[in-house]
Amino acid sequence: MIVEIFRSPELFKAFTGSTLKGECDPKLDKMDAKTKEKLIHLEKLENKGFDVEELKVRLFDQRPDD
After folding, report:
1. Are 42 and 52 in contact (CB under 8 A)?
2. Comparing C-alpha atoms, which of 39, 19, 42 is closest to residue 31?
3. What is the pLDDT of residue 66?
4. pLDDT in tens, 13-56
5. What is the Cα–Cα distance from 7 to 17, expressed in whole angstroms?
6. DSSP character string of 23-52
7. Would 59 be classed as within a structural domain?
8. Residue 43 forms part of a structural domain
9. Residue 17 has what pLDDT?
10. How far apart are CA 12 and CA 4, in angstroms?
């Protein structure tokens, strides 16, 4: 069973999830341009020291999953 998991990278990723962050995050693949702009703005604020984690979570929660 373990060999089958390693032979199928998609299945392995489904089990383990993604560790990519920032612009490589797979969550951004289907995100519209306006929402991406909001996320970039929140990341700039976060880099300046503001606590925007809750806003980022709400931004991801409001977008429809396909």
Report:
1. yes
2. 39
3. 45
4. 777 765 656 666 666 777 788 888 888 898 899 989 999 989 88
5. 16
6. GG-GGGTT--HHHHHHHHHHHHHHHTT---
7. yes
8. yes
9. 65
10. 9
